[in-house]
Automatic annotation (TrEMBL):
Catalytic activities: tRNA(Arg) + L-arginine + ATP = L-arginyl-tRNA(Arg) + AMP + diphosphate
Domain DALR anticodon binding residue range list: 426-533
Organism field: Paractinoplanes lichenicola
Domain of life: Bacteria
Protein known as: Arginine--tRNA ligase
Matching SUPFAM superfamilies: Anticodon-binding domain of a subclass of class I aminoacyl-tRNA synthetases, Arginyl-tRNA synthetase (ArgRS), N-terminal 'additional' domain, Nucleotidylyl transferase
């Protein structure tokens, strides 16, 4: 049940009758009542009437029977109090209504031959929460992990493997990559051979391709191991590397050329979508084919976009990638629209996010300045927490509780705290509920709201659907995370003020409903639930 939507729908009829045209009732949660509508104030200015007079007429024309009572407050607000019978009645935890879509959700996106690190944390966690939310809402979600598994760096890596003559170990992918990078930068002979390897790779040389496959397979196993520890739903079946689009790049160029969308600029073929300019005010190019005949990220992203709408028949594309890539994706989407690959009714969106910072306010790194491996971070979570589930829950909730667009500081002490807006606090609330229900000698019964804390908990429970719907609509998981924290706080207050609970069928029912809601909410965010705490 979405109380805000129900109240707004009832009031909208009255406001339209007074205004002579549709009016948004502006129903919002309020500290002065359960909800409040301030629409009468703006309407009064438009009609040239006193706000309280307009509010009184709206109230007189409103049909709130069986849902809420209303009174005029202050200069012309409508304070709305939901009927206790509505709050006390059981309500199913149904997904929000609406048309269902086929959604391609692109997230995580690590590079092969490098292990997952803290820089992948936000894309992976936010993307997976959105995948869970959209799936629950009934959409057909196609998860895509767009791996960086192609390009000039693989000539360097494969040549390093070749020189080691089978004695290499890929157990530490990051160290392997660094050694190859040092040789590439310092050894001209190795650099030449690495560049020739790129040609062999692109031409399909069997030996070179076999070593490349070994790199990719080892990397994918490493990724999956980290995903499983983190509770991420991506599997190898969702991996779609840049390599999978290589045979499509020439046709992308041909199609864009035929449509007059590519211009030669200094030997390169570039698209110049309208509205994009550089610092010098000149049109900004999106380089589709480089001057040496090679293809860059833009060509691969355009091929992927075309494939996802044309072949996968997706109606919505979501790319969970850091904010610095905003301009790149805006240009790719603009070219996609110009090419007809994003026709009417098909949308593409860059779901951007901020960075994970250390206590010094800079990008989170080790003391030596190296990027932190995700596996090492999860190991530390295990060591610091009372259980792996608590540690993982703390890390994921700390990310999801923040607006994705904002940076946040990674603080172990704060995120592992059992109090405050933390994952362990929510996990503990659910563990307490499970313990209570396990001890109960009675079955839950009809709810009677005798105490303000009971009423507040019942009202907060009914805020779940609008919170989940808003998280989906705006691609902002923190909206659901904030609600779950509010629910845990309301339950804690109820637990402290409304004892005994075990002997009251009404309070057991409220407790059970809270447990069901918290469990579902934590699952939608991908947070584990420990058996006990």
């Amino acid at each position: 049940m979405n109380l805000e939507a129900l109240l707004a729908a009832r009031l909208a009829v009255a406001f339209e009758a007074v205004a002579g045209e549709p009016v948004d009732p502006l129903v919002r949660v309020s500290q002065h009542a359960d909800f409040q509508s301030g629409a009468a104030l703006a309407l009064a200015r438009r009609l040239g009437r006193a706000p309280r007079e307009v509010a009184a007429e709206v109230l007189a024309r409103s049909d709130l029977a069986g849902l809420a009572t209303a009174e005029i407050s202050g200069p012309g607000f409508l304070n709305l109090t939901v009927d206790d019978a509505v709050l006390a009645a059981p309500h199913p935890l149904d997904p929000p209504p609406g048309a269902k879509e086929r959604i391609v959700l692109d997230y995580s996106g690590p590079n092969v031959a490098k292990e997952l690190h803290v820089g992948h944390l936000r894309s992976t966690i936010i993307g997976d929460a959105l995948a869970r939310l959209f799936t629950w809402a009934g959409h057909d979600v196609v998860r895509v992990n767009h791996l960086g598994d192609w390009g000039t760096q693989f000539g360097m890596l494969i040549e390093q493997m070749s020189d080691l003559d089978g004695s290499y170990s890929l157990s530490d992918l990051t160290a392997f990559y660094r050694r190859a990078r040092v040789r590439f930068d310092s050894d001209p002979d190795f650099r030449t051979r690495a560049r020739l390897r790129v040609v062999s790779l692109q031409n399909g040389d069997a030996t070179t391709r076999a070593m490349w496959h070994k790199l990719v397979e080892q990397s994918e196993r490493s990724f999956v191991a980290d995903y499983e520890r983190l509770g991420i739903t991506l599997t190898m079946a969702d991996f779609s590397g840049e390599s999978s689009y290589q045979d499509q790049l020439a046709s992308v160029v041909d199609e864009l050329t035929a449509k007059g969308l590519l211009v030669e600029s200094e030997g390169a073929l570039c698209a110049f979508p309208a509205g994009f300019t550089g610092r010098d005010g000149e049109p900004l190019p999106l380089i589709v084919r480089k001057s040496d005949g090679g293809f860059g990220y833009a060509a691969t992203d355009l091929a992927a976009l075309r494939h996802r709408t044309r072949d996968l028949a997706a109606t919505r594309l979501l790319y969970v990638v850091g904010t610095p890539q905003s301009n790149h994706f805006a240009m790719v989407f603009a070219v996609g629209r110009d090419a007809g690959w994003l026709p009417g009714g098909v949308t593409a969106e860059h779901v951007n996010f901020g960075s994970v910072l250390g206590p010094d306010g800079k990008m989170l790194k080790t003391r030596s300045g190296d990027t932190i491996k995700l596996a090492d971070l999860l190991d530390e979570a295990d060591e610091r927490a009372t259980s792996p589930a608590v540690g993982i829950g703390a890390v994921k909730y700390a990310d999801l509780a923040n607006d994705r667009r904002s940076d946040y500081v990674f603080d172990w002490d704060r995120m592992l705290a059992a109090t405050g807006n933390t994952g362990p606090y929510l996990q503990y609330a659910l563990a307490r509920i499970r313990s209570l229900l396990a001890k109960a000698a009675h079955e839950p019964g009809p709810v009677v709201l005798a105490d303000p804390a009971e009423r507040r908990l019942a009202l907060t429970l009914l805020a779940f659907e609008p919170a989940a719907a808003a998280a989906i609509e705006h691609r902002e998981p923190h909206r659901l995370a904030v609600h779950l924290h509010e629910l845990a706080v309301a339950f804690t207050t109820f637990y402290e003020k409304c004892r005994p609970i075990l002997g009251s069928p009404s309070r057991l029912a409220l407790t059970a409903r809270t447990g069901e809601t918290l469990r579902l909410g934590l699952d939608l965010l991908g947070l584990p639930v420990p058996d006990e705490m």
